[in-house]
C-alpha cells in the first residue's frame, strides 16, 4: 500500500454507482454545454436568452438546475456549478450522462504572478493536479490537460472580443486556506500563473469519460504581493464576467 490512499489508483472502468443509474440520457438535449461559477453573469445569461429547465441535480443540500438556453438560435446546455473539485466533477459526470459531449467551463482564479494583474483572462494549457478527485480517474501524475483544440478556439474567441488571453498552467487545489507562500513559489516555478479549485479534476474526468473539455479563468484575487488582495472577488465587474461567459457559451454553441 502507498503512504497516501490517493495513490491507490484502481483502473476498473465500472464503479458500484454509475452516473447513468441516477441521471438518464435526455433525448434531443444539446450535446454542447457551458458551466460557470459566476452567478451574476449566469443570471444575466438567463435574463437575455430564452431558456428552459431540462433537469434538476438534487442532493441533500443543493438543487442544481440544468438549463437549455437558446443562444442566437442554437440551443446549448448551461448550468451554475458549485465551487470545488468534487462538486464540479460530479456535475460534469451528470452532464455527460444526460448527453453532453463538449463542455466548456469558465470562472475566476487567483493570480500568482505580478505581470498578470486582476482582470487578465487565462486560457490554460494544463493544470497541476493538487486535488483529490482526479486521482480516482487517472493514476497519479502532476499534470492534466483540457482539450488543446478547444483551448485554441477559446483563445481565438476571446481575441475576437478584444480580450487578449494569456496561457500557462493553473494550479488546482482543494485547500484554499493552505495556499502558503512556499507552495505558491513552487507552483510558479513549474509554470503556474493562476490557482483555482476545479480545472485539473474536470480535465481528468472529461478524459476518463471520453468527452471534450475547454476551460478559461480570469485573475480575480491576487496572491503574489505582500498580502492577499481580494478586491475583484468583492467588487465584481458583472459586465466583464458576462462577456467571459457569453464568449465561452458561443464557443460551445459551435459544437452543438
Secondary structure layout:
Blueprint: E1 32-36, H1 39-48, E2 51-59, E3 62-71, E4 74-80, H2 85-98, E5 102-111, E6 121-122, E7 126-130, E8 143-144, H3 148-160, E9 169-173, H4 181-189, E10 192-196, H5 199-209, E11 212-222, H6 231-234, H7 238-253
Parallel strand pairs: 1-4, 1-5, 5-11, 7-9, 9-10
Antiparallel strand pairs: 2-3, 3-4, 5-10, 6-11, 7-8
Helix pairs in contact: 1-7, 2-5, 3-7
Report a brief summary of the structure.
This protein is α/β, with parallel strands linked by helices.
Number of domains: 1
Q: What is the average per-residue confidence, as pLDDT, rounded to a whole number?
A: 96
Known CATH architecture: 3-Layer(aba) Sandwich
What's the total number of strands?
11
Q: Kindly provide the name of the CATH class.
A: Alpha Beta
SSE order, as H and E? EHEEEHEEEEHEHEHEHH
Low-confidence stretches: none
Largest sheet: 11 strands, mixed
CATH superfamily assignment?
A: Nucleoside phosphorylase domain
Which structural class is indicated by helix and strand composition?
Answer: alpha/beta
SS field, number of helical segments: 7
What does the overall shape look like?
A: globular
Relative strand content: 25-35%
Distance linking N and C termini? 45 Å
What does the radius of gyration come to? Answer: 18 Å
Enter the CATH topology name.
Rossmann fold
Task: Give helix % range.
Answer: 25-40%
Amino acid at each position: 500500500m502507498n503512504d497516501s490512499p490517493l495513490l491507490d489508483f484502481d483502473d476498473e472502468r465500472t464503479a458500484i454507482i454509475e452516473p447513468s443509474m441516477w441521471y438518464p440520457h435526455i433525448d434531443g438535449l444539446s450535446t454542447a454545454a457551458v458551466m460557470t461559477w459566476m452567478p451574476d453573469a449566469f443570471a444575466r445569461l438567463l435574463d437575455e436568452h430564452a431558456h428552459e429547465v431540462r433537469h434538476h441535480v438534487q442532493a441533500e443540500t443543493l438543487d442544481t438546475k440544468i438549463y437549455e438556453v437558446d443562444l442566437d438560435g442554437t440551443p446549448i446546455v448551461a448550468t451554475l456549478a458549485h465551487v470545488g473539485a468534487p462538486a464540479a466533477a460530479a456535475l460534469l459526470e451528470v452532464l455527460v450522462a444526460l448527453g453532453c459531449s463538449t463542455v466548456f467551463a469558465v470562472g475566476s482564479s487567483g493570480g500568482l504572478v505580478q505581470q498578470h494583474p486582476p482582470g487578465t483572462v487565462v486560457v490554460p494549457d494544463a493544470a497541476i493536479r493538487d486535488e483529490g478527485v482526479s486521482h480516482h480517474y487517472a493514476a497519479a501524475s502532476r499534470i492534466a490537460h483540457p482539450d488543446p483544440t478547444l483551448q485554441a478556439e477559446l483563445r481565438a474567441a476571446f481575441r475576437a472580443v478584444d480580450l487578449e488571453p494569456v496561457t500557462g498552467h493553473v494550479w488546482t487545489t482543494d485547500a484554499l486556506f493552505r495556499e502558503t507562500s512556499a507552495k505558491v513559489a513552487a507552483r510558479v516555478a513549474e509554470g503556474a500563473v493562476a490557482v483555482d479549485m476545479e480545472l485539473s479534476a474536470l480535465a481528468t474526468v472529461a478524459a476518463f469519460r471520453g468527452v471534450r473539455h475547454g476551460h478559461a479563468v480570469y485573475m480575480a484575487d491576487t496572491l503574489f504581493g505582500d498580502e492577499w488582495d481580494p478586491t475583484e472577488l468583492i467588487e465584481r465587474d458583472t459586465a466583464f464576467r458576462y462577456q467571459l461567459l457569453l464568449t465561452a457559451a458561443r464557443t460551445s454553441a459551435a459544437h452543438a
